[in-house]
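F.,

This is the one I mentioned.
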């Protein structure tokens, strides 16, 4: 086993063939599970005790909730849930078990949207940052950076994505910086990658509201939280913008808001974003050789393009 994170995978049992696609939508087939993880520092730190890293529990089914908005809000919630379900049924047929990888800047909602998508597709959900934390035995990415280094985290992140890429029927929320390594794209290109493109101003507001302590690349000892977050996010976006743009699908929150008549992306719900993501995925797979999963040759070609950036 090469250095990094090793997985005892039970992946193929979670796959499904074409005549089972419909029955698998809501739990008809067993979902992929990750077994024990064995972690070793690439610099030869002894292997640590195995850590169980099972898939997250499915999020609660979407239910319409009546709020202070009254019957209008209830009606909109029902319509939204039904639209999401219909779209997931259409997309599931074309996916053929391929994994979905959500990429985007920190704070872009990858985990929230990913959980919704995994639930309606009957997929399992994984957050790659959480898997690295569990594998290393350190409870946060910020602490991993502090105790070890960013390079140590990136090595383990790549190992996580490598092993997840051998599985089927997963929605994976990746870390904001996963796109910077070409090898990660090679792994993700075995499935479908979706970029959640959120305006920097909206990201900065979100992050300033909850704080930057859990985000090592943004954390600052002093200064106005919004100004500091926006400045750092702008720098990261400049470095990563071309890499994000290489995702198979781009989901622009500004475009969704415009179509709905909003002037602020914060008015969008996670379900709005999940529906648009599924719509874009469906359009992509219909256009690109639907019956053939993405192969290694396509992934290698994509990596070569990334390396020229």
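My design for it:
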């Amino acid at each position: 086993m090469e250095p990094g994170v090793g997985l005892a995978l039970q992946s193929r049992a979670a796959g499904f063939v074409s005549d089972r696609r419909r029955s698998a939508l809501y739990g008809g087939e067993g979902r992929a599970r990750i077994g024990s993880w064995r972690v070793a520092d690439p610099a030869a730190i002894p292997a640590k005790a195995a850590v169980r890293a099972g898939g997250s529990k499915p999020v609660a089914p979407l239910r319409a909730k009546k709020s202070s908005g009254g019957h209008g809000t209830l009606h909109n919630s029902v319509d939204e849930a039904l639209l999401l379900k219909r779209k997931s049924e259409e997309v599931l047929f074309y996916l053929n078990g391929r994994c979905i990888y959500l990429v985007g800047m920190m704070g872009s909602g990858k985990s929230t949207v990913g959980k919704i998508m995994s639930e309606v597709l009957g997929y399992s959900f994984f957050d790659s940052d959480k898997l690295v934390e569990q594998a290393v035995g350190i409870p946060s990415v910020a602490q991993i950076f502090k105790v070890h280094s960013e390079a140590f985290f990136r090595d383990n992140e790549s190992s996580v994505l490598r092993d997840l890429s051998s599985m089927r029927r997963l929605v994976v929320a990746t870390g904001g910086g996963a796109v910077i390594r070409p090898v990660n794209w090679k792994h993700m290109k075995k499935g479908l990658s979706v970029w959640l493109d959120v305006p920097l101003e909206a990201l900065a507001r979100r992050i300033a509201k909850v704080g930057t302590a859990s985000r090592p690349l943004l954390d600052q000892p002093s200064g106005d939280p919004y100004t500091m977050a926006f400045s750092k996010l702008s720098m990261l976006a400049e470095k990563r913008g071309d890499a994000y743009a290489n995702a198979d699908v781009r989901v622009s929150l500004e475009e969704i808001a415009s179509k709905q008549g909003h002037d602020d992306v914060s008015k969008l719900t996670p379900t709005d974003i999940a529906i648009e993501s599924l719509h874009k995925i469906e359009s992509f797979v219909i256009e690109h050789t639907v019956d053939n999963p993405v192969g290694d040759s396509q992934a290698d070609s994509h990596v070569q393009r990334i390396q020229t950036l």
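The longest strand covers residues 33-40.

Talk soon.
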